[in-house]
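Reproducibility note. Readers wishing to regenerate the assembly model reported in the main text can use the exact inputs given here. Chain order matters: entities are listed in the order in which they were concatenated for prediction.
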Amino acid sequence: MSQNHEATSLRDSLCGSVSVANVGRRLTVCGWVAKRREHGEHLAFLDLRDHSGILQAVVEGSVDVRSEYVVRITGTVSHRPEGTVNERLATGEVELTECSVEILAAAEPPPFQLDERIDVDEQVRLRHRFLDLRRDTMQRNLRLRAAVNRSLRKAMDLQGFCEVETPLLWAPTPEGAREFVVPSRLHPGEFYVLPQSPQIAKQLLMVGGFDRYYQIARCLRDEDLRADRQFEFTQLDLEASFVTQDDILGFVSEAVLDAAEAATGARPGPIGSMTWAQALDLYGTDKPDLRFAMVLQDLSAVFAATQVKAFGATTVKALRVPGGATFTRSRLDQLTDQAKSLGAKGLAWFRITSEGLDSPLARFLNEAEATAIASVDGAEVGDLVLIVADEYALACKVLGTLRVTLGSPPVSEGPHHYVWVTEFPMFEGVDEDGNLMAAHHPFTMPHPDDYDLIETDPLSVRSQAYDLVLNGWELGSGSVRIHRADIQSRIFKALGISDEEAESRFGFLLGAFKFGAPPHAGFAFGIDRLVAIFAGEENIREVIAFPKTQSGADLMTGAPKSITERQIRDLRLKMAPKGS
RNA sequence: GGACCUGUGGUGCAGCUCGGAGUGCACGCCGCCCUGUCAAGGCGGAGGUCGCGGGUUCAAAUCCCGUCAGGUCCGCCA
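Running the prediction on these inputs yields the following structure tokens for the assembly.
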């Protein structure tokens, strides 16, 4: 029994830490009644639960407590009688005897059982999250999260970073994610926004001379929710001056690997890297899951002059599915539907059999084409080869998604496979006004070899932006920032942002840069996602104490809710009629 | 904005294809019995707007339409 921080004025020890070492001692524990087993009016067993575990108390005579009553029990730690040891309980060798039971709070029966025997509907759990939190899984997940936070802070401190808090009430800088808006009472008609990230604040900290900043920061984005996305999420945010990209990768690797060690007990090896172009080409995504092989193969050259109409496209990409030849027609139809929903015109499939290719398209292939398909990614008899012919990016995306659908192990399984993805493109696509869009953000430094292409061939300009990927989840991203006014103005120009617009949107940042901006770079990664993977959870809600549903509702508090007339008046707000 | 899945006593399920009385299982809850249980056991009992609304039908948990809630995904997430 470790003492000190367990003991309080009301208790001496935690339930889970009582052991044979304490036999003979009289001590007091507090907790919830997990289970009561009565044997008439002479004997009852109470399982007392706190976050550390369960301890059995033996009560002579009957006792008027029910499940989830909060009680304080004083008793003598005793060996259990021979033959009554419970091997499945950590404290199963001992029990409390000669107990006196004090009821601290009565409790109604809980709306769902708090033992872990059945999966309770998430709607029910969220409505009574405070009870769900009492359960072992949530206790484990949130305490794991605390351990990760602790190790991240320690790693950043040891690397000389200074923790600085930045405002939650920030200025609107419309761009990128939709912002949550907060009306100002003192300035009617004007608004704050909640930060999508502390991006601009941390760059100002660099100008301010905090050359190594970090923060465990809450970020808020008013975008649709997903299994790995909540309105509000937490990032380890950092920025450093007088550094290169490699310095940042080093800082972050150190922190993440420390956290991994704290969470899993084993420190992963060094984190490898690949370029964005390689990731897209081989895995069809910028967040490759490297836990399994299955790389995409480009057959464009083979099909350059093909007679097969379906393959008349700039890019022909193939994916080998080991053992996939047994897929039923309906399974193949399912995959085709998935490909179409991702934008593909269709999905070609080829079963590799001992008699050759089995496919509706097989008879249209010439020999070179058939040979190429039959040998995709080292294919063997019994495999399936899927082919998408389309524009390059789409073909990659479709097959990359199918690759994950067909090959990805559950989150709770497999090794943890980290990878840096570097050299992201500077720009991607154009907006409705025909202007280029920044792939990362407009303060990202282009790759030094590509400066000359900014005006001539912007879409091929690489940036000094990088992502950290774990098991196919994007943990976070960062970049070297632009600190030179000349480069910044060329980028703004390429993005179609006028001097006036730049001034009105980011004026305070650009203004600050005039007073001596150090070269700087940074990163931010999602702690929710990192902890979810450590915890083996498919969903970040499982590592968040009070999460929102997919529609953004909090089932416990009922948020979002209407506010009072008084509040509306104070804020000088006016509601538009419903449906307008 | 769109696609798909789910919704049945407090909880988890079955019933739905092929319409026929709210039928069943497990847990929990309430009462009684029980002196070594630990998924305690035995006996008895209570508990239902089959998410909601409409339609078809002699008859709807079941079929059809709509809607709400939850989930997964697409769009969205600089």
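We highlight two features of this model. Residues 136-158 of chain A form the longest helix (23 residues). The longest strand of chain A covers residues 26-39.
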